[in-house]
Design goal:
The protein has about 160 residues and is α+β, with helices and mostly antiparallel strands. It is about 30% helix and about 25% strand.
Length: about 160
C-alpha cells in the first residue's frame, strides 16, 4: 500500500510524475547521509533505479551526454530520498547549499556541466528558490560500479 503524499515537496514530485525511491543501499562502508547541526550531507548517490544502473561506462563514449543528464536527475532524486531518511520531512529543507557532480568521462568529453545540470535543474524544479545552489561538476576516470554519474548534496534544513 502506497503511503499518502504528506509534504509539499513530495506533492511536487508527484506533479512531475516522480516517486521518491527507497534509500539506495551503500555499496561500501559508509552511510547514505549524515546530519550535523542543521545540515545534511549525502554520500555520493549513483543513478540506481531499483538497485540497478540503466547504463555503464564513460560519458562521451558508451553513454550520451543526454542520457547522463537524465541519470544525474536520478542521482538527485536518490539524494532527496537519503535526505528524507535523515530529517523525516522534505518540507524542512531550507536550501540545497552545494551539489558536487562527478562524470565518468571519455578523455575528449568536456560537457560535465551540462550533464550535472540534470541534478541542478531537478532541484530548481522541485524546490524552487530553495533548490538553487553552489556546484562543482568534475570529470573523472571511473566511478563505482562503472556508473556514468555520481552526485552528492549538502542541504540546510529547519
Amino acid at each position: 500500500m502506497q503511503e499518502a503524499t504528506s509534504s509539499r515537496v513530495e506533492a511536487r514530485l508527484a506533479e512531475l510524475d516522480l516517486t521518491l525511491p527507497a534509500v539506495a543501499k551503500p555499496v561500501a562502508a559508509y552511510l547514505p547521509a549524515i546530519t550535523t547541526g542543521n545540515y545534511v550531507y549525502t554520500s555520493g548517490q549513483l543513478p540506481l533505479i531499483n538497485g540497478k544502473l540503466s547504463a555503464l561506462g564513460k560519458v562521451g563514449a558508451e553513454v550520451s551526454a543526454e542520457d547522463a543528464k537524465a541519470m544525474a536527475q536520478t542521482c538527485a532524486l536518490n539524494a532527496l530520498a537519503a535526505i528524507k531518511a535523515e530529517i523525516g520531512d522534505l518540507d524542512r529543507i531550507k536550501r540545497i547549499v552545494k551539489v558536487v557532480g562527478f562524470v565518468s568521462s571519455d578523455p575528449s568529453f568536456t560537457g560535465q556541466p551540462g550533464v550535472i545540470n540534470g541534478a541542478s535543474e531537478f532541484f530548481g524544479n522541485v524546490l524552487g528558490e530553495a533548490g538553487v545552489h553552489a556546484r562543482s561538476a568534475v570529470g573523472v576516470a571511473v566511478l563505482p560500479l562503472d556508473a556514468p554519474v555520481e552526485v552528492e548534496v549538502i542541504a540546510e534544513f529547519e
